[in-house]
Amino acid sequence: MPPLYTLDNVAQIYAGRTVLSIPHLAIPAGQSLAIVGPSGAGKSTLLRLLAFLEEPTEGQIAWRGETTISAETRRSVTMVFQRPALLRRTVRDNILYGLKIRGETAGQHLETLSEQLGIAPLLDTAAHKLSGGEQQRVALARALITRPAVLLLDEPTAHLDPQNVRLIEAMINDSHATANTTIVWVTHNLFQAQRVAAQTALLLDGRLIEIAPTDAFFARPQQPETAAFLKGTLIY
Ligand SMILES: Nc1ncnc2c1ncn2[C@@H]1O[C@H](COP(=O)(O)OP(=O)(O)OP(=O)(O)O)[C@@H](O)[C@H]1O
Ligand SMILES: [Mg+2]
């Protein structure tokens, strides 16, 4: 069985500048991968490619060995953006939007998810009136309600207090454990990577410096750049 994702010689070039260059990366189904790296390293760019929102300028991304990506595959991959854009409608409409365009209904799942995320009292509120942290939780509910095969998370807890960070980590871990959801989690928080991910990767200047089981990544980094990044002594 080929991995869920296989990237070969992938490069993303904007206006002549190579912002991402990955000779090879395989992500098996059911993986939970954290991506760390400084601002501008190409983390969000990598997520957009994995979400099939952009085609790489060079190279190939295969899904289960296939480079032709079906509409069904695209629908099974969901990204939670660093700055989620919500519709100027109620929280309920926002959460149900993805299902609606798929012609599906939520059933009990809407109540369960909004209870778990602590946004049940907000379902009839206009989404644009919510705080940053509330919006992040709505964006997560909107993603989880489709029961995606792959969940791509771009700093989904950046605006949250510690209690909500824990709550979201637990929900995502739960989705990973019960539905075998493949998770790619971009985070600036190294402690978070250690809590949530089986594997961790460092991106630096568009290059994949190291990818390893999370324990080994933090305890025994193999690359000097990783060691420097973890110690906070990397100059970039
Ligand atoms: N659509 C675009 N057009 C031109 N340049 C872009 C585009 N998207 C990203 N870039 C550039 O590519 C580089 C990588 O951006 P990216 O958003 O992937 O970084 P990041 O690692 O997610 O950073 P951060 O941690 O700040 O979110 C940056 O220098 C950015 O300015
Ligand atoms: Mg980013």
Structure description:
- This protein is of the alpha/beta class.
- The chain has one domain: 3-Layer(aba) Sandwich (Rossmann fold), CATH 3.40.50.300.
- 36% of the residues lie in helices and 25% in strands.
- It contains 9 helices and 9 strands.
- The strands form 2 sheets. A 6-stranded mixed sheet has the order 5-6-7-3-8-9, with helices on both faces.
- Strand 1 and strand 2 form a beta hairpin.
- Helix 3 packs parallel to helix 5.
- The termini are far apart.
- The chain binds adenosine-5'-triphosphate and magnesium ion.
Itemize the secondary structure elements and their pairings:
Blueprint: E1 5-14, E2 17-27, E3 32-36, H1 43-50, E4 58-63, H2 71-75, E5 77-80, H3 91-101, H4 109-116, H5 132-144, E6 150-154, H6 162-179, E7 182-186, H7 190-196, E8 199-204, E9 207-213, H8 214-219, H9 224-231
The chain binds adenosine-5'-triphosphate and magnesium ion.
Magnesium ion binds next to α1.
Number of helices: 9
Order of strands, widest sheet = 5-6-7-3-8-9
Quantity of strands, as a count: 9
CATH top level class name: Alpha Beta
The name CATH uses for the topology is Rossmann fold
Poorly predicted residue ranges: none
Bound ligands: adenosine-5'-triphosphate, magnesium ion
What would you say the CATH architecture is? 3-Layer(aba) Sandwich
Class from helix and strand fractions:
alpha/beta
Chain-averaged pLDDT:
94
What is the element string, with H for helices and E for strands?
A: EEEHEHEHHHEHEHEEHH
Provide the domain count. 1
How many angstroms separate the termini? 39 Å
Strand residues, percent: 25-35%
The CATH superfamily is P-loop containing nucleotide triphosphate hydrolases
Tell me the overall shape.
globular
